């Protein structure tokens, strides 16, 4: 009976489970300011913990793809098991935070588990909603964004309680998301297995000029995205201090700024139907890059710092635009990759993109204490080089794309 009810609304079940599962991604960042205040953890330490999640996700994604694990076992079972393990490991972090090697190992394992949540969510979407894959995957990326913001919401809602509580709540949500997918099961429209990914096949697509340009644009987007999300609490805390507001406000504002990316994804998806994915990706990348350029100029005291409200409004616009191009890059990459190698090509492209988030996060968190707002200019090479790569493509060659992966 319960199974039948869930199957009536498979898209809603999958995206909600995705939201709950991906709350593990930035769960530690959600309590980052509390860890700095109570335990003396620095921005660099927080950056390292985030880097370990990214590294674990890359390793896990490539392992699943290259071993064909997702074809040997049901996607719903892998998703549910990953949520279960991820929730337990995330809860275990509360016991090991004082022991950096253990804490970093647990964050790496959390990243491994996330590799069984986000990519497998895509497969579940295709299995349940084959006629509306493009819009459904836009919702999925939106839920990834909202899941990234969710730890800040949990912190804001439990601000008077110990910092461990939001982490335990994120773990509980992950367990709930896994249970939902376990009950739902796999969809009746799963595509035929493409087998394990071969590295040489995935890289061969880069010989195609159009795909190479799209991938380069995606790499520029990836360089900026996660480093920006990592810096949001620091940027918000700076303006909250100037406004003499409570630290609890920082958690609420950080959530809203990152969560606006969900709206950006959905708006970009609707606009792509009439403007095309390439135009939407360009505009979003240009918007986020322009904000990254002017933000330090407006916010630096030596140049006459703008009002905190103006800077917070800019952060909201940045949060909206920084992820709006992501579903469009996925759609464009799927459209330009060799049809017989789409799976392997996208797996390699995504892995390379997430690999680029590691030096971006490391660099910006390492320099934050000495450079302050100027550290944002280290994000500019991403949008700049991405736009330069996309300039080689003609808008007319890329009409509205209905499917994405």
Structure description:
The chain is mainly alpha-helical. The chain has 2 domains: 1-185, Up-down Bundle (Growth Hormone, Chain: A); 206-400, Growth Hormone, Chain: A, CATH 1.20.1250.20. It has 19 helices and no strands. It has helices at 2-8, 10-22, 27-30, 32-39, 43-67, 69-72, 75-96, 100-114, 118-128, 133-157, 164-184, 199-204, 209-243, 247-275, 277-299, 308-321, 326-336, 342-371, 381-390. The longest helix has 35 residues, at 209-243. The protein starts with a helix and ends in a 15-residue tail after the last helix. Residues 401-405 have low confidence and may be disordered.
Throw out a few tags for this protein.
405 residues, disordered C terminus, mainly alpha, Growth Hormone, Chain: A, 2 domains, globular, single chain, 77% helix
**Computed Rg:** 20 Å
What percentage of the residues does DSSP assign to strands (E)? Answer: under 5%
Shape descriptor: globular
pLDDT < 50 runs, ≥5 residues: 401-405
- In the CATH hierarchy, what is the superfamily of the largest domain? MFS general substrate transporter like domains
Do you know the CATH architecture of the largest domain?
Up-down Bundle
From the N-terminal CA to the C-terminal CA, the straight-line distance is 32 Å
SSE run? HHHHHHHHHHHHHHHHHHH
Structural class call reads: mainly alpha
Number of domains: 2
- For the record, the CATH class of the largest domain is Mainly Alpha
Regarding quaternary structure, how should these chains be classified? single chain
Helical fraction:
over 70%
Largest β-sheet summary: none
* CATH fold field value of the largest domain: Growth Hormone, Chain: A
Mean pLDDT: 86
């Amino acid at each position: 009976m319960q199974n039948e009810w869930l199957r009536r609304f498979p898209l809603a079940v999958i995206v909600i489970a995705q939201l709950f599962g991906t709350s593990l991604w930035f769960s530690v960042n959600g309590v980052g300011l509390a860890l700095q205040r109570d335990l003396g953890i620095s921005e660099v330490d927080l950056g390292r913990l985030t880097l370990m999640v990214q590294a674990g996700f890359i390793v896990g994604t490539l392992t699943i793809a290259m071993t064909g694990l997702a074809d040997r076992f049901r996607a719903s079972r892998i998703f549910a098991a990953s949520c279960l393990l991820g929730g337990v490991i995330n809860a275990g972090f509360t016991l090991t935070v004082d022991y950096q090697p253990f804490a970093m190992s647990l964050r790496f394992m959390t990243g491994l588990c996330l590799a069984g949540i986000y990519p497998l969510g895509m497969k579940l979407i295709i299995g349940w909603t084959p006629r509306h894959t493009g819009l459904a995957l836009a919702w999925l990326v939106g839920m990834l964004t909202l899941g990234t913001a969710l730890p800040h919401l949990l912190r804001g809602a439990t601000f008077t309680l110990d910092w461990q509580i939001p982490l335990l709540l994120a773990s509980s949500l992950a367990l709930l998301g896994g249970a939902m997918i376990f009950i739902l099961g796999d969809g009746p429209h799963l595509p035929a297995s493409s087998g394990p990914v071969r590295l040489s096949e995935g890289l061969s697509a880069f010989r195609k000029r159009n795909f190479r340009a799209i991938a380069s644009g995606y790499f520029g987007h990836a360089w900026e995205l996660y480093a920006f999300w990592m810096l949001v609490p620091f940027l918000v805390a700076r303006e909250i201090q100037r406004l003499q507001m409570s630290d609890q406000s920082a958690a609420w504002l950080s959530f809203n700024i990152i969560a606006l990316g969900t709206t950006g994804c959905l708006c970009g998806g609707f606009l792509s139907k009439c403007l095309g994915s390439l135009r939407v990706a360009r505009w979003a990348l240009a918007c986020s890059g322009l904000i990254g350029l002017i933000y330090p100029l407006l916010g630096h005291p030596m140049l006459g710092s703008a009002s905190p409200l103006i800077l917070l409004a800019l952060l909201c616009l940045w949060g909206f635009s920084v992820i709006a191009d992501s579903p469009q890059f996925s759609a464009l990459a799927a459209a330009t990759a060799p049809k017989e190698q789409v799976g392997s090509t996208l797996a390699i492209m995504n892995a390379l993109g997430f690999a680029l988030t590691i030096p971006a996060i490391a660099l910006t968190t390492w320099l934050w204490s000495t450079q302050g707002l100027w550290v944002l200019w280290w994000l500019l090479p991403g949008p700049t080089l991405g736009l330069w790569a996309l300039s080689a493509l003609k808008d007319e060659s890329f009409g509205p794309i209905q499917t994405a992966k």
